[in-house]
Amino acid sequence: MLAGAAGALLLAALVTPLSAAASVAAPTGAPTLAAANAALAQHRDVIHGSDAETYTVARTIADAGGAGHVRYQRSYHGLRVYGGDLVVHTAPNGAFAGASTGLTAPLTLGVLPKVTTAAAQAAAAKAFTGRVTSVGGSELFVDASAPAAPRLAWETVVRGWAPDGLTPSVLHVMTDALTGIVRGSFDEVETVLGTGYSMYSGTVSIDTTLTSSSPVTYSMIDPSHGNNRVCSMGNSTGACTTMTDADNIWGNGTPSNTQTAGVDAYFGAAKTYDYFKNVHSRCGILGACAGVTSRVHYASNYVNAFWDGTQMTYGDGSGNIRPLTALDVAGHEMSHGVTEALAGLIYSGESGGLNEATSDIFGNMVEFYAGVAADPGDYLVGEKIDIFGTGAPLRYMYNPPLDGSSYGCWFSGIGSSDPHYSSGVANHFYFDLAEGTGATAYGTSPICGSAAPVTGIGRAKAEKIWYRALDVHFVASETYAQARTHTLSAAADLYGLCSTEYKAVHLAWAAVNVVGTDPCAGPTPGSLVWLRADAGVTSSGGLVSNWTDQSGTGHHASMTVAARQPSLASGVVNGKPVIRFGGSQSLSLVTINPSAFTVFVVGKNSKTTESYSMILGPGGNNANNQLRWENGTQALVYGSNGIPATTSTIGNTRVFHDLVIRYDGATLKVYRDGTLYTSTPVAASGGWSINQIGAYYSSAYMQGDLAELLVYSSALSDTDRVSTQNYLKSKYALP
Description:
By secondary structure, this protein is α+β, with helices and mostly antiparallel strands. Helices cover 21% and strands 30% of the residues.
């Protein structure tokens, strides 16, 4: 809570009670769910799972293109894991396509508490500031809100009133179950500085309900927006009565008329409902097309507004002359409900800042969406309410430090800051993504450090990316580093890998000092072999006699016998050429013999029957050390020197894909389209000797196309592997 001489507007950030984290049933017959369940069983290492865990489906999302995303809640030895949620992503064919998770290692802690429930309740009551009205029972759970240091803990809910005696408080206190130390707490009615401008919205149209014809009575119940309702508390903290009127003309634009605040609250709730429905296809704050109640005239001289999980409450401000029924207040507060329903961002640490920023972002987007001429969208928070009497807004999204408290650049330890201040990093990122850095129509956005400038992609795309990330990729304990990765995934989902939008996300995060490897920088330097059909090909009459190595190491591929020369086919994949092997052609490669390697291939098997096509291999009659497109039953990698045959079930490859084989001297991993298909322990006794492309002996040839071939004499890091795969996917428009 931030208070100034003129008082403070307090906007609520709802966090669902931990003890009420219930699963939402999903259709058990849905292909998306079945595929995700299978992927989860096969890839528990990716989500840092263990045999002591169970997983409950919370939400299932199926994209139009067939990809699926299933959000799970995690239990450990039957205990709820706070911050252990995860999302499993599946490809259109049902294959595992990765996962989002907050944990960094499998849980191994014991589950026997040393602190009693009575002691936990006493500690929770002591941690409450204000007047306690009740202390609930304590629930034993695993607190993984700090993923690197999960602990067994008690959660106790303490209810009462904040020190002002007016603001309700439902405080969740986490007590270490081994030491009795209070680990942290959060309030369901979390208060934050906010703003309002509803008295300045001018004349607006509102859809009310005729509830009586004799006498004629209209009520503030909105049939167009899930029956949103506005009621008045008459400057008390007691009952709330639905606002009514005889002529359906409400308020007079000033606080002297008690209906004015109701009009503004009604308008704000309607516009927020419309924004999420029309922009993000979300019907109602909680996704069930139901409206919300907005309570106005709460208490007296109450400079506060809050969302308590189901309804909005607005005070009338200092002197009861500035009702806090602002449009962006409504957007901000109700967005906390959306955040909790979708990702449940924990209201502490970096995830707390992301939670607050999400409300600032969507509150501003509601303001832009409403298009009120008297108060157009501006990326400011609190610009009209003038809480401190200086005319300054509460927050500046384009340059957060201008408010004197918020941070605009990420730094190690920012998670220890108040979420209202750490939110500035995400607010700044979002502004840069939408509008760009430097001088803009809304203000000058500075760059952190020596980052490159950013050209904005516009609000329409930026808001879609943020919502998609929140909906499909964010987890409860989200960090800024994860938010970078997950917004990149969202941009790829919506606009394509390495698209302009995708690259803008990368640059916008770098501009606020959330840095990472450029995911579209191209192949990592240092390849042993780099053959690409769009460069270095010597052909005559369409037949290829030489394929020049672009790596600089001189490992060229050639064929002097015309009858065995493959052909060059132009414009085959994403407008780019391929080298086509018709079943009796091959190229001799200058021998490579790496003991560790990463091989990238872009191409396809063209055989019409269920059989494999050889890509790389040795010459002569040696059938070992092969890399080949496989058909679901044949080995994908077949080696000697201790490298075993590795079989995958990826099916036939008669369409273009990227294939990656990575061997680090101990484990052979096979990826297709970025998905890990097999991971085989290997103890090789020698190198992998290859000197042929398209055949390994005279009767076994490749039938298919090669667009690009990259070989490294080392096992690339996952970051470098993904970067190169992104380059190839973008270049050839692969799945």
